[in-house]
Each structure stands twice: as structure tokens, then as C-alpha cells.
Amino acid sequence: MQRRFRTMMVRTATLLTSVLAFASPVHAQTVTIINPLCPGSTCTFDVIFDRLTNYALLVLGPIAVIIILWVGFTYMTSGGSPERIKQAHRALLWAIVGIAIVLLAKGIYAIIKTVLGP
Q: Model confidence over 17-32: pLDDT tens digits?
């Protein structure tokens, strides 16, 4: 058993050595990849963060309006059910928290950047 294992290890080492010793380099064509976050400009954290927050405002604005409309619909169709009214209040609270976070993101970043320095 041990002899068989040793033979297999020698064969594997020989095979790997021969493959790695005679490997030829590949001269492939280089490709320039354009960064979609900041094409034509240098990518700094400020640029990327600004673009991401602008995108978040663009996407989350309509989503927030839809959520608030859904909350209003839930509240109006609750039929006086305390459970459904509580569910609508919680959804409205979290929708407002989400909107506030998105709106304050740029301000919070500016404050942190000012405190920590450039």
C-alpha cells in the first residue's frame, strides 16, 4: 500500500514538473476596460460615492412614493383592524426612515469627510 502511494506521488510529481517546465508563455492581445462608474475621469471615492447616491435617489424616489401609496391603501382598507393599522404605521415609519437615510447620505458623507480631513 505504501509502495503504491509512493509510486503514485512520484508519477504525479514527474507529470507536474514536465508540464510546468515546458509551459510556453502566451502573448495575448491586451484589452483596455473602461470603468462604467467614471468613464474619462479619475476614479476617486468622491466620484464613485456621488454617482452611487445620485443613482440611489433616482431609483429610491419612485419606490418611496409607491411604498407610501401602499401604506395609505393599507391604512384605508384596514377596516378599523388594530393589527392592520399598526402594520401600516410601521411600514410608514420605515419608509420615512429609508427616505431620510437616502436624503442625508450626501450630508453625512460631507460631515465625515470634513471631520476626518481630505
A: 877 777 677 777 777 7
